[in-house]
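To whoever is on call:

I kicked off a structure prediction for a single chain this morning and the downstream step that reads the tokens threw a length-mismatch warning. I double-checked the sequence; it's 139 residues and nothing unusual in it as far as I can see. Pasting both halves so you can look.
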Amino acid sequence: MRHTTLLAIVVIVAFAGCGRQTTTTTTPPKANTMNCTLDICGAKQIRNPTESDIRQAVFALDTKKDEAFLILGPTEMTYIQTTGDQKVGFLLEYQENDAKHHYRSKHNLTADAIVKALVSYSTGAVDWKTMAEWEPVKW
């Protein structure tokens, strides 16, 4: 009889949880990251750059010293790019899949705005598109 009672208690505890409260937690989704390469003036490439890499590259651009451009993207036909420096300001362009879908910012942007846009792009977010007013580039 004891064994039957003990077995019944074990079964009840197993299904009812012994009166303990259970909580369910979910892990927040990871930020989407693109598999990108940052091309710094055609001289150096950084695979999957960090925010620090991007910030350093943007603030190092100097149009008086050399070609001052950055290209960040997953492919040769899909990317975001900038040219300029802190003194003259920066233009921002992006292209999606082909030259028919190539756009340029209508106004110069600050170095901080460029960093925000490039970091946003590198994570796969889309808010970088709202950081500038765009016009199509006609070839």
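Update from on-call: the warning came from a stale cache, not from the record. Cleared it. Sanity check on the structure: The helical segments are 2-16, 51-60, 111-122.
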